[in-house]
Amino acid sequence: MILAVTGGKGGVGKSTVAYNLGAELDAVVVDGDLGMADLPASRGPDLHDVLAGRASVFEAVREDGPVTLLPCGRSLAGAKASDPTALVEVVERVADEYGRVVIDCPAGMRADVGLPLYAATACVVVTTPHRTALTDALRVRELARELDAGLVAVVLNRAHSEERTTTVERRLGAPVTKIPESTRLAASSTWADPVASVAPESEVHEQFRTLATSIQSSLRS
């Protein structure tokens, strides 16, 4: 399984959703944003090094954290030295070894957004209730369709409890999971721990657990 987490607009919480889904699905999370990496990083080889031929995939995968992660470097020099076209092969090799991969896609509609979607067997679109975010979510959903990365779920992030999801489900064509604004989720992002570790009994963790179960059911059917 290779699941791309995308969203079009930046700042909708896509990286947080990818990281927490990785925890729930017991997957390797690949930080696929080669220009503006956002997931936790540590010393050692990273995705930039792999794409530049300076390290192997398995040297760069970190198994010692709360979520198994293939981090990406944050330097402009590293981004320039890497070969983005090799990303698909790298992701497929990780999937062959570990079974499940979640890719945190770049924001926006740049050309490099298409590479993770091309590698993916399915995708999750993350948006907020704001009109501009929903418009971008529609655009990236169309790109995913063109690249055969079937949409299995929509995450409506920072949603109020009374927020209606019917219109979003109809426009995007997939079931919607609401993730409420949460200080516990914010804390999990800050500490680089998934919400399953920080607040296992919280509502927001229950939503991520339900989302992961729904995704697995969709991919099996």
Mind explaining what this structure looks like?
This protein is α/β, with parallel strands linked by helices. The chain has a single domain (2-220), classed as P-loop containing nucleotide triphosphate hydrolases (Rossmann fold, 3-Layer(aba) Sandwich). The chain has helices spanning 14-25, 47-51, 57-60, 76-81, 87-98, 114-119, 131-146, 166-172, 183-191, 195-198, 203-220, and strands at residues 2-6, 28-31, 69-70, 101-104, 122-127, 150-157, 176-179. Helix 8 (166-172) links the parallel strand 6 and strand 7. The model has no long low-confidence stretch (mean pLDDT 88).
The end-to-end span amounts to 13 Å
CATH architecture: 3-Layer(aba) Sandwich
Q: Write down the overall mean pLDDT.
A: 88
Derived structural class: alpha/beta
Main β sheet profile:
7 strands, parallel
- Could you give me the name of the CATH homologous superfamily? P-loop containing nucleotide triphosphate hydrolases
Shape: globular
Strand order of the largest sheet: 3-2-4-1-5-6-7
What is the highest CATH level, the class?
Answer: Alpha Beta
Instruction: Indicate the proportion of strand residues.
Output: 5-15%
- Helical fraction: 40-55%
Q: What sequence of helices (H) and strands (E) makes up the elements? A: EHEHHEHHEHEHEHEHHH
Q: Please tally the helical runs, counting DSSP H or I stretches of 4 or more residues.
A: 11
